[in-house]
């Protein structure tokens, strides 16, 4: 998994997920930091319409039109249906960007909607799920899903030669089953996610605006401890990445990281320091 993450609560959040050329949210500064890589972006998935998640759209849409690169590559921007702020922005772009050289498509999504990323033998798609954030502003999270095949449980104990023989004998469909693996789950801004929405994901991006519960005035965001709890209940396979951390905690992250390490969790935990660009290999 290759990703570039920038997140500072209130200011700007965006995540470039390279395997499927997706930009999750589009906070301020995204195009000046991604530079030529803006041309690689095929899809934008917005979690909600707050300024710290959409303010980079103006730059992204214009740079794709003006900088050196493929000016004809279409861009699809997905957003939660009914978002007031995004709807206003769509009007703005329709009036001010009449000379775009590429197709710019705005696609409203609802929880449960799917968007195909890749057709073929192992199809990949995005599945939107509901999150709870701010009153009056619909919000969504997104799972990157891959359809895979595995041996059915009652064949898994067989020795390799017998399985090979069954496959050669044309029994492949019979002894195997399709299943969906969540590869990457992005929760956007939200109170603790419903673990069922991201269950079994390899990598979970959960917001953690607060490190301490007493700092939270309104119930719109999560704490790092809640994010850990969600990841444990969701049985995250590889890594929990916490982002959207308030810059007030910049100096406290090392001690929190030590506390988390002492918990001995079955997955890795990475904190995105507010205001730092983090590249993940
Ligand atoms: Zn935010
Ligand atoms: Zn927000």
- How far is it from the N-terminal to the C-terminal residue, by CA? 6 Å
> Strand content of the residues, in percent?
25-35%
Q: What is the number of independent domains?
A: 1
Helix content: 10-25%
Radius of gyration: 20 Å
Per the principal axes of the C-alpha atoms, what is the gross shape?
A: globular
> Could you spell the SSE succession in H and E letters?
EEEHEHHEHEEEEHHEEHEHEE
Largest sheet: 7 strands, mixed
Structural class, from secondary structure content?
A: alpha/beta
At CATH level 3, the topology is Metallo-beta-lactamase, Chain A
Number of strands: 14
Low-confidence sequence ranges: none
Average pLDDT = 95
| CATH architecture classification | 4-Layer Sandwich
What's the tally of helices?
Answer: 8
Q: Which CATH top level class fits?
A: Alpha Beta
In the sheet with the most strands, the strands line up as 6-5-4-3-2-1-14
CATH superfamily: Ribonuclease Z/Hydroxyacylglutathione hydrolase-like
Instruction: List ligands, each type once.
Output: zinc ion
Describe the model:
The protein is α/β, with parallel strands linked by helices and 281 residues long. 23% of the residues lie in helices and 30% in strands. The protein has eight helices and 14 strands. The strands form two sheets. It has a seven-stranded mixed sheet with strand order 6-5-4-3-2-1-14. Helix 4 (84-96) links the parallel strand 5 (75-80) and strand 6 (104-109).
């Amino acid at each position: 998994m290759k990703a570039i993450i920038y997140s500072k609560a209130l200011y700007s959040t965006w995540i470039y997920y390279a395997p499927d050329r997706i930009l999750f949210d589009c906070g301020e500064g995204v195009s000046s930091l991604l530079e030529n890589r803006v041309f690689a972006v095929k899809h934008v998935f917005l979690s909600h319409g707050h300024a710290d998640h959409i303010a980079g759209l103006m730059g992204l849409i214009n740079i794709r039109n003006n900088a050196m690169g493929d000016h004809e590559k279409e861009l699809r921007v997905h957003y939660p249906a009914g978002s007031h702020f995004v709807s206003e922005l769509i009007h703005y772009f329709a009036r001010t960007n009449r000379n775009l050289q590429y197709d710019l498509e705005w696609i409203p999504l609802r929880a449960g909607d799917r968007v195909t990323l890749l057709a073929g033998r192992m199809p990949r798609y995005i599945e939107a799920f509901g999150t709870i954030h701010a009153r009056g502003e619909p919000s969504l999270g997104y799972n990157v899903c891959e359809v895979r095949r595995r041996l059915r449980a009652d064949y898994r104990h067989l020795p390799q030669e017998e399985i090979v023989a069954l496959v050669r004998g044309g029994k492949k469909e019979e002894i195997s089953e399709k299943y969906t693996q969540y590869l990457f789950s992005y929760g956007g801004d939200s109170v603790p996610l419903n673990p069922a929405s991201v269950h079994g994901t390899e990598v979970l991006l959960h917001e953690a605006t607060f490190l301490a519960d007493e700092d939270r005035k309104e119930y719109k965001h999560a704490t790092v401890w809640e994010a850990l709890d969600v990841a444990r209940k969701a049985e995250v396979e590889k890594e929990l990445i916490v982002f959207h951390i308030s810059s007030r905690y910049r100096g406290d992250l090392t001690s929190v990281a030590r506390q988390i390490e002492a918990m001995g969790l079955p997955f890795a935990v990475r904190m995105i320091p507010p205001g730092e660009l983090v590249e993940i290999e």
